[in-house]
Design brief:
alpha+beta, 2 domains, 10 helices, 39% helix
Length: 211
């Protein structure tokens, strides 16, 4: 299974903003973006003096930023876009809704993981069930009324033992509900664009693939 394994902080620096890819570390002084808020590479500090970015450049950067936030490689991301084109409605909003419905993202949104990357790993290791069935596919798309919970065997794991107390302070999105004591989340409805708080201009992504 292909995945990005290089330094995550380089991705934030390349996009010129925090993408919060490393959980709690992104909120600490150790965050590389706080110390070096310029693009990576030997010419990174000089890029701010270059000429204005073209329309294509803006579209490309927005597409790359979306991919990096959700931890998806190009082939799968393009497939999500092509599927969104086939669905009636606003293509950009439909694309973001699909990305939010990924199981690894839902686990992250519920506070059961500190980052989407950690959520992906926990799902791959079989720590979660959807509607009572163990799932090891991070890209699985949840539906309204689906129930996501930590499997019974995994609740004894050291990572999950102290989690219920920490979940009491987690603010979940409006389209999800969380039972902190039982580490159980429910998908109340599919997310609308207004309920998705990622800093993306999805219309630029649509324009990029529509060239």
């Amino acid at each position: 299974m292909a995945r990005y394994i290089a330094a995550k902080c380089r991705l934030c620096r390349r996009e010129g903003e925090k993408l919060f890819l490393k959980g709690e570390r992104c909120y600490s002084p150790k965050c590389a973006f706080e110390r070096r808020a310029y693009a990576p590479g030997m010419h990174g500090q000089k890029r701010s003096f270059r000429r204005k970015t073209s329309d294509y450049g803006l579209q490309l950067r927005e597409k790359q930023k979306a991919r990096r936030i959700y931890g998806i490689l190009e082939r799968q991301f393009r497939r999500y876009f092509e599927d969104a084109l086939k669905i009636k409605g606003v293509t950009g909003a439909t694309l973001l809704q699909t990305l939010e419905r990924r199981l690894d993202n839902v686990v992250f949104r519920l506070g059961l993981a500190s980052s989407r990357e950690q959520a992906r790993q926990l799902v791959l290791h079989g720590h979660f069930e959807v509607n009572g069935h163990k799932v090891r596919i991070p890209s699985m798309l949840v539906k309204a009324n689906d129930i996501v919970t930590v499997s019974e065997g995994s609740q004894k794991h050291v990572y999950f033992k102290g989690l219920p107390k920490a979940l009491e302070h987690v603010a979940t999105p409006e389209w999800l509900s969380l039972d902190a004591a039982n580490m159980l989340g429910r998908v109340l409805t599919l997310p609308s664009r207004e309920q998705i708080d990622v800093p993306l201009r999805e219309q630029l992504i649509v324009e990029y693939y529509s060239r």
